[in-house]
Design brief:
ATP hydrolysis activity; six-stranded mixed beta sheet; nucleotide-binding; Rossmann fold; ABC_tran_C; ABC_transporter-like_ATP-bd; repeat
Length: about 675
């Protein structure tokens, strides 16, 4: 579908890509990872055609369409939400406009005129295109995607200009999903999603027909969706045939192997250099010396990226406090006529570790602000416990930093006396490297300011931390540092986040905020999701049971009930399922007649899948070797065509196999 062929790119003296090569095939799910500045955004621009390489080429099949969701910066207004989402089908809407214009013209024409017949023919052809595009289904598709991304039914007629930045990104995401490009390029797509819409989004992407490349710091999201990982490091792109967790394990194995190869190479080089040095002055060895000098010049030296130190950082010990740190009693919160909470009760005790989840707009951040005394309440009580010392972090905390101070001085001034080294360590963990610590706040990006504000808070001793989306601007390593520190922290924690992989090892309770109020679950976010799924399954089962009972009662007539009580001859006595012995034998024979061919079909599909998967794996291995693209053009194309054919047919065979298994299960039950 798309081939990156020996891509080279430099920005000034800095090499961004030093000859990267890879392929993207239909239905690929690729996680794109790398440290900040490794070139992830640049690679996306290359794929989109917004950046030209200095060497090599990005080759796309003619049918390929691309869709890119950036991290932020998209906003629309002037249309109702539903109409804005419908613009994803602009080509279909244009056909509909032509139909409307032609229909209006038709009313003005005399049926006897030749133009009338011509216009009718045009309308017929256009209507045929609309039918092929399933135009009648588009409104329901739009509604399904918008509701899945967290919009309410009442939002569909609201002007897009009324929605905030996070919701604007959801509008952009909805339009992108509805367009269904061949390749989706998603840059931090989970940043603006709550847990419920994130679960829907994951499920949608699993079923998506095109390929997807994802840049994300949400480990659980990557692990759930991706089947391949591209790792950008030192201008190279390394392919891994698995998700992020596989990449982490495999990259360590590869690095160890590379280190052994580098050590072996260094021994060989040292041995050669000793020979040259020893015999350089001997004319009898001149030829051999010259040969070894040339051999040294030709050696492609193995480079190993400096291994990042595992940063160890611990939070200051929580000062002693009473058993109850914070309590809300019968709290009422309103914004004008909009009521957020009515009679909300909540208690936080010493050592509690609570994850707060819920739909966007449910009031999670409002709760955090109320608990931190940053938001007034319209009723009830907020009670602070004995010697409770509470710290609060949210994205706007960065606005309170002194623009003329540098990062290091801010961190050092926040740290306890004599803890300056701890301040520098934490800044390094939060991506302030080298001289970055001397940058003034006024020149920092929004993400850098947020990281600095978070670091400043974490350096001070508190016995309760309230964190609202603390991971939004952190990379994987920074999140791991923060996660380890919070796991070891001995104070109380309240964390508002949708990042499951970050929350799960930390949280011991989960507070769900919804329109119905607040509910506490005695477990982490995974436990909460399992409980919610079980509740929904039970509700569906109860609904199905009631529906089935109602249908059974409606079908049961007095005559049927009376006849069921009457006696019958022995050879026609109904079985418990209502069938006579003769009817049962006939049914069994018919079932056996159908089972044979189905089992044969299933066996053949299993054999085909095994054969094709082996060939597919072998081809994939070859294609990851840079030498693959140095063979002749026709040979490369033939291999890639075969690769695409295998991928498509393996997926189709699996789908057919599942259908066969369902039929077999139905017959055998």
């Amino acid at each position: 579908m798309i081939t990156l062929r020996d891509i080279h790119l430099r920005f000034g003296a800095r090499t961004i890509f030093g000859g990267i090569t890879s392929t993207i095939t239909a239905r690929d799910r690729i996680g794109l990872v790398g440290s900040n500045g490794a070139g992830k955004s640049t690679l996306i621009r290359l794929l989109m055609g917004e950046q030209e390489p200095d060497g090599g080429a990005v080759e796309k099949a003619s049918y390929v369409t691309l869709g890119h969701l950036p991290q932020d910066g998209l906003a629309v207004k002037g249309r109702p939400l539903r109409d804005e989402a419908m613009t994803a089908f602009e080509d279909v809407l244009e056909i509909q406009r032509k139909v409307d214009i032609a229909s209006e013209r038709l009313h003005e024409l005399d049926p006897a005129e030749e133009e009338y017949a011509d216009t009718l023919e045009v309308i017929g052809a256009l209507e045929h295109h609309l039918h092929d595009a399933e135009a009648h289904k588009l409104p329901s598709r739009v509604e399904r995607v918008l509701l899945g991304l967290g919009f309410a039914v009442k939002d569909l007629e609201r002007d897009c200009g009324e929605f905030s930045g996070g919701w604007q990104m959801r509008i952009a995401m909805a339009k992108l999903l509805l367009r269904e490009p061949s390749l989706l390029l998603l840059d931090e797509p989970t940043n603006h999603l709550d847990l419920e819409s994130l679960c829907w989004f994951e499920q949608y992407l699993r079923q998506y027909e095109g390929a997807v490349i994802i840049v994300s710091h949400d480990r659980a999201f990557l692990d759930s969706l991706t089947q391949r990982t591209w790792s950008l490091t030192r201008g190279r792109l390394e392919n891994y045939s698995g998700n992020y967790s596989f990449f982490e394990t495999e990259s360590v194995i590869r690095r160890d192997a590379l280190k052994r190869s580098a050590e072996s190479q260094q021994r060989q080089i040292a041995q050669t250099e000793r020979f040259i040095e020893r015999f350089r002055a001997k004319s009898s060895k001149a030829t051999q010396v010259q040969s070894r000098v040339k051999a040294l010049e030709k050696i492609d030296r193995i480079e190993i990226e400096d291994e990042e130190d595992r940063v160890q950082f611990s939070l200051p010990k929580a000062p002693h406090c009473g058993q109850v740190i914070l309590e809300l009693k019968q709290v009422v919160k309103r914004y004008g006529d909009l009521e957020i909470y009515r009679n909300l009760d909540f208690k936080l005790e010493r050592g509690d570790r609570v994850a707060v989840v819920g739909r966007n707009g449910a009031g999670k951040s409002t709760l955090a602000r109320i608990l931190a005394d940053q938001e007034p309440i319209q009723g009830g009580e907020r009670i602070v416990g004995y010697q409770a010392q509470i710290a609060y972090f949210a994205q706007h905390q960065a606005d309170e930093l002194d623009p003329m101070e540098n990062a290091l001085s801010i961190a050092e001034s926040a740290a306890p006396q004599g803890e300056g080294r701890r301040a520098r360590t934490l800044l390094g963990a939060f991506l302030f490297k080298g001289d970055d610590v001397f940058k003034k706040v006024k020149v920092l990006s929004g993400g850098e300011k947020n990281r600095l504000a978070l670091a400043k808070m974490l350096l001070q001793p508190f016995n309760c931390l309230i964190l609202d989306e603390p991971t939004n601007h952190l990379d994987m390593r920074s999140k791991e540092v923060l996660q380890r520190a919070l796991k070891e922290y001995d104070g109380a924690l309240i964390i508002v986040s949708h990042d499951r992989s970050f929350l799960d090892p930390i949280a011991e309770k989960t507070l769900e905020i919804s329109a119905d109020g607040a509910r506490m679950f005695a477990g982490n976010v995974t436990y909460y999701l399992e409980k919610i799924a079980a509740e929904r399954d039970a509700q569906r089962a109860a609904t199905d049971s009631k529906s089935a009972s109602a249908k059974t009662a409606a079908k049961a007539s007095p005559a049927a009930q009376n006849s069921s009580k009457a006696s019958s001859p022995a050879n026609t006595t109904p079985e418990p399922d209502g069938l006579s012995a003769k009817e049962r034998r006939k049914l069994v024979a018919e079932r056996n007649r159908q089972l044979g061919p189905l089992r044969k079909q299933g066996d053949k599909l299993e054999a085909d899948i095994a054969t094709w998967e082996a060939e597919y794996a072998e081809l994939e291995k070859k294609m990851m070797d840079p030498a693959f693209f140095k063979q002749s053009g026709p040979a490369t194309k033939e291999s890639m065509d075969r690769y695409d054919w295998l991928k498509t047919n393996i997926e189709r065979a699996y789908a057919d196999w599942e259908t066969v298994q369902k039929k077999l299960t139905g017959l055998e039950d």
